[in-house]
Amino acid sequence: MPYGYHGKILHVDLTRGKLDTETPPEAFYRKYLGGSAMGLHYILRDVPKGVAPTAPENVLTVMLGVTTGAPISGQSRVNVNARSPVSGAIGDSQGGGFFPAELKFAGYDGIVVKGRSPKPVYLWIKDGQAELRDAAHLRGKITGEVDAILKQELGDPKIEILQHGPAAEKSVLFSSLLSMSNRNNGRTGMGLVMAGKNLKAIVVRGTKKPELADAKALTDLNKTGPKLMPQNPDMDGLGKYGTASVVMPQNSFGTLPTRNYNEGQFEGAEPISGEKMAETILKERDTCHACVVRCKRVVEINPSTLRQAQGRLLLKRGEGAYKVDPYYGGPEYETIATFGSYCGIDDLAAISQAHQICNQYGVDTISCGATIAFAMECYEKSIITNKETGGIELRFGDADAMLEVLMQIVTRSGALGAVLAEGSARAAQAWGRGADECLVTVKNHEAPAHMPQAKRSLALIYAVNPFGADHQSSEHDWMYENGMATDLYLGRLALLGLKDPQEQMSLGAEKVRFAYLTEVFYSLLDTLELCQFVWGPGWTLYGPQETVELVRAVTGWDVTLEELMTVGARRLNLMRTFNAREGFTRKDDQLPKKFFKPLAGTGPTAGIALDPKEVEAALDEYYKLAGWTNDGIPTAATLKKLDLEWAAEYLPA
Q1: Which residue, 107, 131, 118, is CA-closest to 202?
Q2: What is the pLDDT of residues 298-354, one digit of tens each?
Q3: How many CB atoms lie within 10 A of CB 562?
Q4: pLDDT of residue 195
């Protein structure tokens, strides 16, 4: 028997209603480790070239890592992959909570879904037994209702459910997948892919915990986490205030995207900060399976909490206007930024309402909030008028307008719902008249709330990342910049070969090395399915050395950091190979026009912009480091070096 994993992959053919179990050899698991690296093995092999993302022929993979379910912080993550309806490139989405560990305990390391069911179904897995069940009664229901129905239907309140919401049934492009109705596999439209297969949900329950190779070593490693929390201000703040702990630091650095990325400071930052949330509407801190950090927020708003918060919480609509159910969790930093500072809104209650709607209907909060902010700028510039908005005065700072447009998007209704449900890039094409000047998209993917104008290596990663702009695909610049880097950061980065911290806002050859090597490490984390708030190359609880120790303790393999980094490189190369087969090249590794225009407003980043020549030079250097052509395509030699010779046949001729 293997350690840490079951050696079983469930294959689901929805067209035929057939379920099969594959038992790959140990070498397969050691080669890919799990996550999207493992998923790409099936997707690249089985998805026909040029297939539409919502076609039956698209393959959807749901993959765990070899360390998923181990009793230690930060391991309960799941990766979902398929060709993305947002970009047409590879789609990639991660989520946490309790579903990932429960899927492992249910007896499988991953799921490969093909075809399309002739009727709505859900997949029910319990202790190694799987079946498809009718889901017609779940259509049109919001996520919380589906949770309640299935728990009653299956007679078990402890089941875990990964589902798409009603927005996907309305073909909202950036539809997501949710577990617990508040853990969001948000990015790249994976909810729409699953809805296109008529698969409503994956429901799991299990008691089959894999055996550990060295339980004592894992226990010893696990004991260090709680001790490190109070000593690490980054982790301590994350626990106390969640990811929203960075709202005020980002604002002070001039890197809080404001009014659709036109400025880097927001005058309304404090009322939407993590500290303000903790002071007012925070009900409790939630967690993922076995994690001590407890960074997940749970907020509640009703007339009683509003009365208690008067004078502390900025409210624009008055007592009783909002009702936010703690079942749907609470907003993360990205949600606070995209529905807050992006839209010029300083009302935490309105942002929390928006967060709840996104989780109820199943949409990515980053793409959704950023798309509304884009539309606001188009309205402010008269690119669209009341004719396009149906009379809505869609201006920055108007929370009522934001929420009204949000409801139109998730229900694909009203004057704006249909066009904005396609995302901002397609809306810009539909409107024309210079709307593309207002975009913040890469590969049609809306940028998250970390500004590459100031974090220059992040500009490079936004451009080259296989599935579009992403803030969790590499480490951020400040960790490797003079005046910002600490001994902890530099000591861990040195293990990756990074020993020469750079000047702030630089993008020379060494900063490109930093971007590439930390991207490879983050890619490793997305194969092991480890949380990047707990495991990472710098500020986290555990660093690269502890990552090696974790894999050894769980699997019994005598792995090295070099071997693990190679797996991270495999994932990136498989993704880029898929994209290259679909026609993606350097021309698609481009940043939006807005990033090259000086930022307005005040603060340390006012007047700052990216330099196009610097970015192009960084692309050249990055491609060399990766072993790709100057057009950004992996070479057969690079694939062979990574033991991926089989993938070379998918490279363009």
Answers
A1: 131
A2: 999 986 666 565 555 444 554 456 789 999 999 999 999 999 999 999 999 999 999
A3: 8
A4: 98
Does residue 282 sit in the same domain as residue 180? no
> Are 151 and 16 in the same domain?
yes
Looking at the structure, do residues 153 and 265 belong to the same domain, yes or no?
A: no
Cβ atoms within 10 Å of 558's Cβ, excluding its own: 9
Q: What is the pLDDT of residue 313?
A: 46
Separation CA 181–CA 581 (nearest Å): 35
pLDDT (average), residues 144-164: 98
Tokens standing for residue 641: 């070096």
My answer on whether 417 and 320 are in the same domain is yes
User: Do residues 637 and 627 make contact, with C-beta atoms less than 8 angstroms apart?
Assistant: yes
Average pLDDT, integer, range 155-161: 98
pLDDT at 309: 58
Q: Classify strands 160-164 and 177-179 as parallel, antiparallel or unpaired.
A: antiparallel
CA 84 to CA 174: how far, in whole Å? 9
What's the whole-number mean pLDDT along residues 436-442? Answer: 98
Q: End of a domain among 205, 221, 245?
A: 205
Examine the domain organization and report whether 343 and 368 are in the same domain.
Answer: yes
More confident residue, 94 or 486: 94
Residue 641 confidence (pLDDT) above 90: yes
∠163-348-255 over CA atoms, to 5°? Answer: 90
Distant-in-sequence, close-in-space partners of 253: CB < 8 Å, separation ≥ 6: 264, 454, 604, 605
Q: What is the mean pLDDT of residues 623-633?
A: 98
Give CA angle at 364 (355, 590), nearest 5°.
135
> Is 641 inside a domain boundary?
yes
State the average pLDDT over residues 405-429.
98
- The reply to whether 211 falls in a domain is no
The DSSP annotation for 482-496 comes to TTT--HHHHHHHHTT
- 557 lies in which domain range? 456-590+611-650
Which pair of structure tokens corresponds to residue 77? 């993550």
Structural domain contains residue 603: no
CATH number at residue 635: 1.10.599.10
Which element (helix H / strand E) includes 78? strand 78-83
C-alpha span between 529 and 37 (Å, rounded): 10
pLDDT at 318: 46
Mean pLDDT computed over 17-46: 98
Give the chain's domain count: 3
DSSP secondary structure string for all residues of 9-39: EEEEETTTTEEEEE---HHHHHHH-BHHHHH
Spell out a b/e string for 483-515, using b for 16 or more CB atoms within 10 Å of the CB, else e. eebeebbbebbebbebeebbebbbbeebbbbbb
Task: Give the Cα separation of 398 and 401 in Å (integer).
Answer: 5
Domain of residue 58, CATH code: 3.60.9.10
- Decide if 2 is inside a domain: no
Query: From CA 467, how far away is CA 90, in angstroms rounded?
Result: 6
pLDDT for the residue numbered 334:
98
pLDDT digits (tens, 9 = 90+) for 242-289: 999 999 999 999 999 999 999 999 999 999 999 999 999 999 999 999
